[in-house]
Amino acid sequence: MRIGTGYDLHRLEAGLALVLGGVRISHAKGLSGHSDGDALAHAIIDALLGAAALGNIGRLFPDTDPQHEGADSLDLLARAGAHVMKNGYSIVNIDATIIAQEPTLDPHLDEMRENLARCLKISADRISVKAKTNEGLGPEGRGEAISVHAAALLEDA
Ligand code: MG
Q1: Mean pLDDT value across the chain
Q2: How far is the CA of 39 from the centre of ligand 1 (A)?
């Protein structure tokens, strides 16, 4: 068994689409970034790569590479998952926490889990996605950013 952790934070900016776990969520602001800004997918990629000691998202998908401009992060997640599996591991489970003051994410969490599971070719009951506010404190609490913490457990395939 091998455990990995991942973390990501993206700025919230007006006029951008908010995409988390591949779900487009109606909100006045979205996450900025080189890709679609899907911080949930990015944190999980880092947890998976970390567990396998295969570097991180920036090494696998350099943001200097124009082909990642506006990339669909679920596609990056699928490729990262395949990379981890090709290196001899299977995914036991993933747990993630999204920190966002707004909007309310609870109604979207199951759809996120289904999207992530489909990309990683595992069942959704192996993936947990939780959401919480930051009690109005810090950049997440002020609605300036959304951050995600993730953990992944791998086992030898
Ligand atoms: Mg990111």
Answers
A1: 96
A2: 5
